[in-house]
Amino acid sequence: MDMLLLNKFYRVVSREEKDNNIVFHVELLPECDVYQGHFPGNPVSPGVCNIEMIKECVMQVVGRKLVMNKLDRCRLTAVASPSVCPTLDVTVHVEEGESSVKVLASIADAQQQYMDFKGEMI
């Protein structure tokens, strides 16, 4: 599978099943070029990279390459930064249909939620 950001932008520390969800404990990698340019001296995790991270976690769950098909909700509720929150939980709930995968996901740490996501991938 083609993972654009895995082991460049973030790495998976561990993965567990919890309440019908899969929780990926991830570490943000501050040396990534994305953080160097967004923004120098004050790195933040771009929303589009957070969406890609969710997609890549879902791909690991279903075991195949996916593309975004539909985005119903994507709330950026706080700014994630490798200097402020170096580890995050990417929680995904996946419902596989015949032709698509419905996804509910969030990115959070113990203090707050950074993204709330609902969408469909094919």
UniProtKB/TrEMBL annotation:
<protein>
    <submittedName>
        <fullName>3-hydroxyacyl-ACP dehydratase</fullName>
    </submittedName>
</protein>
<dbReference type="InterPro" id="IPR029069">
    <property type="entry name" value="HotDog_dom_sf"/>
</dbReference>
<dbReference type="InterPro" id="IPR054545">
    <property type="entry name" value="ApeI-like"/>
</dbReference>
<dbReference type="Pfam" id="PF22818">
    <property type="entry name" value="ApeI-like"/>
</dbReference>
<dbReference type="GO" id="GO:0016829">
    <property type="term" value="F:lyase activity"/>
</dbReference>
<feature type="domain" description="ApeI dehydratase-like">
    <location>
        <begin position="16"/>
        <end position="101"/>
    </location>
</feature>
